[in-house]
Amino acid sequence: MLSKQLIQRLSTKSLASKNSVRAIQHTRKLATPSAPQGMATTVDAGSGPLSAPKDLDNKAIIAPLDSFGFNITAERKSTDPRRPIYLDAQATTPLDPRVLDKMLPWFTNQYGNPHSRTHVYGWESQDGVEEARAHIAGLIGADAKDIIFTSGATEANNMSIKGVARFNKNRKKHIITTQTEHKCVLDSCRQMQEEGFDVTYLPVQTNGLVSLEELEKAIRPDTSIVSIMAVNNEIGVIQPLKEIGQLLRKYKGIHFHTDAAQALGKIPMSVQDMNIDLMSLSGHKIYGPKGVGALYVRRRPRVRIDPLFSGGGQERGLRSGTVPAPLAIGFGEACRIGKLEMQNDHDRISVLRQRLLDGIIGKLDHVNLNGSETATYPGCTNLSFAFVEGESLLMALNDVALSSGSACTSASLEPSYVLRALGADDTMAHSSLRFGISRFTTEAEIDLVVNKIVGVVNKLRDMSPLWEMVQEGIDLRTVEWSG
Ligand SMILES: Cc1ncc(COP(=O)(O)O)c(C=O)c1O
């Protein structure tokens, strides 16, 4: 078990008392390197003065891991005790301390290559990885053998689209996806166009959902794969996967892929009920570690893909390369916890979202909720603030870690392509904020953010000549602007 103090420090950043210096009492069952079979050898890793945390608010998060007799410390990079409130859970979720606890031994004593077949180091890592695989499968109603570990959802999406298209290239030349997919899906499709495939980028309705009629119209005899995401990373809308799966079942030989990076552990999903053939998953969107993900690849009936990598033939020959056991095991633990706590998380996050919406929409006019109000994951809420410039808004909100869209595109000043696909005009697409609420977000944080947003939007609007005109009752649509 992770020590109580460490859990507290990891999860309650602001509660930690200043300048408190306390050694972590940490007793862990560790194997010594010389006694690998001695997993029960108890090494007291924490009695005695370990290199103790220094200033809780300032620098120290210290995990005493005395592998080989070294104390390993991890100091926070930031020396600012007042970190911004984190509301960017779609970019990444904080690592659940329970996941970290599960991972730690696999970084230190149990470091075997899970593909080593000749000794206990390998066997125990393999067991850990297989247990993790079962937890991941359990969260999506799959068989453990159908789970292929990857470096993340980007790789899984590339594997699915390129892999299926290339495998079937002699008979099928058509791919269907939507205009609001994650960049890595869209870019994989563009790459396939360069290789001679046709791609249909389906438009979405103003609520962000695909129309089943449009989808059916786009299907061709040579369509090999349909890729439609589960939960959108910018606006949180949930696509009707079950209905899409039912529709595609009618057409033999079309593979249904879904990018479920933002859906795993957030909403119930079943590859069987939804007739999904390939599903991309990511560790760091479900309170697990970064750098690991998975692809569900159906075995019955068997889905065949061209692998992206050549190499040792690990992971059913579909993904060569050593499985990073500590990360995979952390991902598995995150899924185990996710399964147990999904409903509870969802209920809590729904309440927090409502509090956020009531607070903001109750106090500000001309705020638009982007995407469907009902088919949505409450932990991802996207609002546009009319008469406010998005970049100024983000800059003024420097004590809240928020994004105006996906982490991958927020570096560009281009308005979000997702919001434009919904029909938002450029100014509304420019003035949007995505609120990512996580398992660890608190009511107090939501209240602080509401106050901050209301204050900043009012201030920016007070400086805007457009806002002044609106206040004077001028309908801006009737104004003829000189060029
Ligand atoms: C919907 C979606 N797909 C794919 C990805 C990429 O995931 P990863 O970081 O695991 O490669 C993300 C991450 O932002 C995402 O939100």
Automatic annotation (TrEMBL):
Keywords: Iron, Iron-sulfur, Metal-binding, Pyridoxal phosphate, Transferase. Pfam families: Aminotran_5. GO terms for molecular function: cysteine desulfurase activity; iron-sulfur cluster binding; metal ion binding; pyridoxal phosphate binding. NCBIfam families: PRK14012.1 (NF010611). Gene3D superfamilies: Aspartate Aminotransferase, domain 1, Type I PLP-dependent aspartate aminotransferase-like (Major domain). Catalyzes the removal of elemental sulfur from cysteine to produce alanine. It supplies the inorganic sulfur for iron-sulfur (Fe-S) clusters. Plays a role in both tRNA-processing and mitochondrial metabolism. Involved in the 2-thio-modification of both 5-carboxymethylaminomethyl-2-thiouridine in mitochondrial tRNAs and 5-methoxycarbonylmethyl-2-thiouridine (mcm5s2U) in cytoplasmic tRNAs. It catalyses: (sulfur carrier)-H + L-cysteine = (sulfur carrier)-SH + L-alanine. GO terms for biological process: [2Fe-2S] cluster assembly; tRNA thio-modification; tRNA wobble uridine modification. This is cysteine desulfurase. PANTHER family: CYSTEINE DESULFURASE (PTHR11601:SF34), CYSTEINE DESULFURYLASE FAMILY MEMBER (PTHR11601). Its cofactor is pyridoxal 5'-phosphate. Its EC number is 2.8.1.7. Residues 29-50 are annotated as: Disordered. Residues 85-448 form the Aminotransferase class V domain. Belongs to the class-V pyridoxal-phosphate-dependent aminotransferase family. NifS/IscS subfamily. GO terms for cellular component: L-cysteine desulfurase complex; mitochondrion; nucleus.
